[in-house]
């Protein structure tokens, strides 16, 4: 370590001749304050890298190791000042390294805090952006209450509304003011309509009161007429003439031979035709008068024979048993024999279609059977327009398979004879036929008709209901046949007339009639049980195909006899065509909740929203075809993972069961939920 630095006081060289040299004072080093020293150390620590400190530390430690090695070997005693200097330098390197490390850690923590603050700010900004986006979407999707109001066209508005309301100088250039003016005019019109409605309802109530009074007077007249007819019957029988309502001498003679039930119906039908001025309805009495006279004499003789047999007390039990057995064998042949005189009623319907009714009275069964035939230009489609089931189920629970008279039903049961044994020849004993003859109630399982129910007024009401039901059934069947013909010829054109997308990927490839066995074998057990409970008359198979999703859909349709009062039942089966590795897969309501939801929508939901009952079948098929596009778009199981959608949707699914948006909105051309 070098000594202090000396300075010369003079600038000139020393004078050698001088006898004595002046003594120089040592220069004192500048004193450094601790704060300045630490500041310098900090600067050195920040400016020196760890690699340089490591290099310096290794150099000093190597020098110290060499000195110690020499000391251990005893070759040389180390200089204490150099050793201390090495140690001091090593400690200085260590201190600088620790300080630099602390500074780096502090800087790292500071940077981390800045990063976390920036990240938190970023998250807050993202949340704020999402919130703003939701608010923007809500604003874009906002629907005012007046958007669903159908306003009158602008031309009509300016033509009909007064200028004080329309204000054309303002509203034609301001869409908002124009909308307000149209709404104001709409409110004014609706108030006027309400006033008109109130006035018309008042007039209607007055007319109803007047009609009720006239009906009461008519009812009193009808009771008096009935009393007169009852009083005139003995005179007519004594004179051997028929009812005055007969249109000819032949009809009068046949009328006197009619059974009581058919004579009641004849009188009521003639009165109905005259009162209602129904020229399309004709009532004619047909039959063999001579055979009817022989039957009357035979019945009279049998009654007298029965009275004599009841008075005879000498017959034994064995003989009586033989007579009963012979009588049962005879009854099997005669129990289903009709009365020789019957009624023929022709009821004209729309499109020149006529329903010819033949009503036969079976005396042994005490019921009236009806056989019918359809004539005219009735469109046909396979067996849909067949006469065998056109009037089946005309009223609830009335299929004509059982005898409505308890005595007649007991006879058939004892003789082990069914209604089908004579239905082809004389028709079926429908309950509504017994109701119009006054022998039974129109309600199935009801009590026997009372005297009030068999009065002329009540029977006229029942006859009116029956004729109206027959005409409605024929009209509905004609419309159904036309729908079926359209579905067979151009199915997609028939379906596109309803609220469905203009472009559908699913198309109808075939529509054909099938038998009941095929239908029952193709549907699920639950659907089979429902079909058996509802009862069907016709069965069809509609085949759909979606080539984009490789789907083949079969719709098994059950049409009831009383369509459209009872809606069709459609079972859906979806077949997914597999590739070379996997074969085709079939899904139905039993193994797929998607197919079950589709069946529910087609059979229940869309039917509840329909207003035109005559097009239920076509509307159901239109909904089925368009909703098959929905499952092909949104269900990955059916679309091969294809994410490209063919239609617009509000949401792809909803709820725990992933309900699909089956409701189509024509205004937005999108599928949504209720």
From TrEMBL:
Cellular localization per UniProt: Nucleus
Gene Ontology BP, a term: mRNA export from nucleus
Superkingdom to which the source organism belongs: Eukaryota
A GO CC annotation given for this chain: THO complex part of transcription export complex
The protein's name: THO complex subunit 5
GO molecular function list: mRNA binding
Transmembrane segments: none
Protein family per UniProt: Belongs to the THOC5 family.
One Pfam family matching this protein: FmiP_Thoc5
Keyword Nucleus (UniProt): yes
């Amino acid at each position: 370590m070098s000594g202090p630095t000396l300075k010369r006081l003079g600038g000139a060289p020393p004078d050698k001749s001088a006898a004595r040299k002046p003594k120089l004072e040592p220069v004192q080093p500048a004193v450094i304050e601790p704060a300045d020293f630490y500041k310098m150390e900090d600067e050195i620590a920040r400016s020196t890298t760890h690699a340089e400190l490591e290099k310096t530390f290794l150099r000093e430690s190597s020098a110290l190791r060499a000195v110690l090695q020499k000391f251990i070997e005893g070759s040389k005693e180390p200089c204490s000042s150099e050793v201390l200097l090495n140690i001091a330098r090593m400690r200085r390197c260590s201190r600088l390294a620790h300080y630099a490390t602390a500074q780096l850690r502090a800087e790292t923590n500071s940077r981390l805090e800045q990063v976390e603050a920036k990240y938190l700010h970023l998250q807050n900004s993202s949340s704020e952006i999402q919130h703003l986006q939701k608010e923007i979407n809500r604003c874009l999707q906002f629907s005012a209450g007046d958007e669903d109001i159908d306003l009158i066209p602008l031309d009509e508005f300016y033509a009909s509304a007064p200028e004080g309301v329309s204000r054309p100088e303002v509203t034609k250039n301001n869409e908002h003011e124009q909308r307000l003016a149209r709404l104001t005019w709409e409110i004014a019109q609706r108030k006027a309509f309400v006033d008109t409605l109130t006035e018309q309802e008042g007039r209607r109530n007055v007319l109803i009161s007047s009609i009720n009074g006239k009906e009461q007077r008519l009812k009193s007249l009808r009771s008096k007429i009935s009393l007169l007819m009852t009083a005139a019957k003995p005179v007519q029988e004594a004179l051997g003439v028929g009812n005055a309502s007969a249109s000819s001498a032949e009809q009068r003679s046949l009328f006197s031979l009619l059974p009581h039930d058919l004579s009641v119906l004849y009188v009521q039908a003639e009165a109905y035709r005259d009162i209602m001025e129904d020229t399309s309805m004709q009532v004619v009495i047909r039959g063999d008068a001579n055979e009817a006279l022989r039957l009357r004499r035979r019945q009279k003789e049998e009654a007298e024979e029965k009275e004599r047999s009841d008075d005879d007390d000498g017959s034994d039990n064995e003989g009586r048993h033989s007579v009963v057995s012979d009588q049962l064998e005879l009854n099997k042949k005669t129990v289903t024999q009709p009365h020789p005189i019957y009624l023929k009623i022709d009821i004209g319907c729309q499109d020149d279609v006529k329903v010819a009714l033949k009503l036969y009275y079976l005396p042994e069964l005490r019921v009236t059977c009806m056989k019918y035939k359809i004539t005219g230009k009735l469109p046909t489609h396979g067996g849909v327009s067949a006469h065998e089931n056109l009037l089946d189920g005309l009223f609830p629970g009335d299929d004509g398979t059982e005898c409505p008279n308890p005595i007649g039903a007991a006879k058939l049961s004892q003789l082990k004879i069914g209604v089908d044994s004579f239905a082809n020849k004389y028709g079926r004993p429908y309950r509504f036929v017994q109701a119009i003859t006054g022998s039974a109630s129109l309600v199935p399982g009801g009590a026997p008709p009372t005297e009030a129910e068999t009065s002329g007024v009540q029977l006229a009401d029942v006859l009116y209901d029956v004729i109206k039901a027959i005409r409605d059934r024929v009209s509905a069947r004609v419309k159904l046949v036309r729908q079926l013909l359209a579905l067979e010829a151009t199915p997609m054109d028939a379906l596109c007339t309803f609220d469905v997308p203009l472009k559908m990927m699913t198309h109808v490839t075939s529509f054909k009639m099938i038998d009941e066995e095929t239908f029952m074998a193709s549907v699920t057990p639950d659907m089979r049980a429902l079909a058996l409970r509802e009862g069907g008359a016709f069965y069809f198979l509609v085949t759909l195909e979606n080539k984009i999703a490789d789907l083949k859909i079969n719709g098994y349709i059950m049409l009831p006899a009383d369509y459209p009062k009872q809606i069709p039942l459609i079972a859906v089966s979806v077949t997914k065509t597999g590739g070379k590795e996997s074969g085709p897969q079939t899904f139905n309501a039993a193994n797929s909740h998607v197919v079950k939801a589709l069946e529910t929508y087609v059979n229940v939901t869309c039917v509840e929203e329909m207003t035109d009952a005559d097009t239920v079948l076509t509307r159901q098929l239109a909904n089925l075809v368009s909703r098959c596009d929905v499952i092909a778009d949104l269900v990955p199981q059916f679309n091969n993972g294809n994410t490209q959608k063919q239609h617009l949707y509000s949401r792809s699914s909803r709820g725990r069961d992933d309900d699909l948006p089956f409701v189509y909105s024509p205004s937005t051309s999108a599928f949504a939920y209720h």
